[in-house]
Amino acid sequence: MTKMVNVRVVDVYKSYGKVQVLKGINFNIEDGEFFVLLGSSGAGKSTLLNILAGLEAVDSGSIFFDDKIVNDLPPVERGVAMVFQNYALYPHMTVYKNMAFPLKMLNYKKDSIDRIVKKVAETLDITWLLNRYPRELSGGQAQRVALGRALVRDPKIFLLDEPLSNLDANIRSKIRNELKLMQKQLNKTFIYVTHDQMEAMSLGDHIGILHNGVLEQYGRPIDIYNNPINEYIATFLGDPEINMLSCIKYRDVYECDGSIKFKLDLDDKKITLGIRPENIYLHRQNDNDIEGKIIPKVSELLGSHTLIIGSVENKEIRIVTEETNISIGKEIPIYINLNKCLIFNEKGENINK
Ligand SMILES: Nc1ncnc2c1ncn2[C@@H]1O[C@H](COP(=O)(O)OP(=O)(O)OP(=O)(O)O)[C@@H](O)[C@H]1O
C-alpha cells in the first residue's frame, strides 16, 4: 500500500476570464481522513477538486501532497482517482472488465491485472458481481464498482464529486453509511464534494465550507454546527433550518421578532439571535429560560420527533420537539435558554463569548 498523503492547499487563486472563482484558499487534509468540501452551487467546489486532480491549473498558490509540490504534475502522476456523479462505468463491459480497464490502459500483464482486480473485488466485497454488467447493479453496488475501478491503481487520494446525487433519497443514506465504512476500511484520504449539508455532516471527519470562492470555515462538523463563524454558515448547516430573530436594544432590554425579550450585557444596538429548532422547548427547563409565545400552524412528524412551524407577529419559528400533542392554531408558550443561542452582530458575525 502507498503511504497516505497529507494534502496542503496554500493561497490558491483561480479565475475564469474576469470571474474570480477561488479567492485565496488555504487548508490542510490529514492522512486517511474523510474531508468534505461543502458549498452551494457555483461556490467553486468542482474547480478546487479539479485543481487537486490536476485537471485545472491554479493562477497562483500551491498544492502539496506529502510536502511535495504537485502544481506541475499531470493527473496520472498525482496518485489520485476521481469518482464521478454517474460512476461513468462502461455499460458494455462486465464489472471485471470495468475494473481491469485502467490497468489494461497502463499495459499491465494479464495475470497482474487478474490478481489486482480479484484482490480489490474481495476488499470491497464485490467478487460475486464480477460477471455482471452495470445495468444489473443496484446504486450501491455500482458505487462499489466505481470505487473498485479507482482503487486498482492504488491511488493515494480519492476525489469524489457529488457521487450520491443521482441516487434516490431512500437509498442515499444507506450508501452514504457504506461509503464511510469503506473509507475507514481502506484508510485512504477521501476528498468529497457536495452541496448537501446532511451528507457533509454525516461523512466528514472535517468539513471545509466554500462560499463565493472563499473557504469560510473549516473544522469538525459538530464544531462548525455548534459554533458557526457567521449567519451564512449557521443557516447553511442544520435541517430544519436555524431560527434567526432580529433583536433591537431598548434601554437594557433586547426586543426580538416573535415577542421575545431578554437582557444581555452587550453594547450592540442590533443583534440577531440564532436558535436551533431543537433548542426551543414547550416547557420550562431552567429558571432563567426566556419565555415567548407562538401559534402552531403546521406539525410534521419526523419519526421520533415532531417539527412544529409556528408564528408570532408574522415571524415563522421552527421547533423540533418530542411532544406529539400539539394543538394547531392555539397560542402556546415557548422557552429558550440563552446559553444555547448564537448571537450575531449587525455584520452577521458570531459574537458568542
Ligand atoms: N471552464 C469554466 N469557464 C468559465 N467559468 C467557469 C468554468 N468552470 C466553472 N466556472 C464558473 O466558476 C464558478 C464555480 O464553478 P464550480 O463548478 O467550481 O462550482 P461548484 O461549487 O462546483 O458548483 P456546483 O455545485 O453547481 O457544481 C461558477 O460561477 C462557474 O460558472
Automatic annotation (TrEMBL):
GO terms for molecular function: ABC-type transporter activity; ATP binding; ATP hydrolysis activity. InterPro entries: AAA+_ATPase, ABC_transporter-like_ATP-bd, ABC_transporter-like_CS, ABC_transpr_MalK-like, ABC_transpr_MalK/UgpC-like, Mo/tungstate-bd_C_term_dom, NA-bd_OB-fold, P-loop_NTPase. This is ABC transport system ATP-binding protein P1P2A. It is a peripheral membrane protein. It is found in: Cell membrane. It holds the Pfam family ABC_tran. PANTHER family: MALTODEXTRIN IMPORT ATP-BINDING PROTEIN MSMX, TREHALOSE IMPORT ATP-BINDING PROTEIN SUGC. It comes from Thermoplasma volcanium (strain ATCC 51530 / DSM 4299 / JCM 9571 / NBRC 15438 / GSS1). GO terms for biological process: carbohydrate transport. Residues 7-237 form the ABC transporter domain.
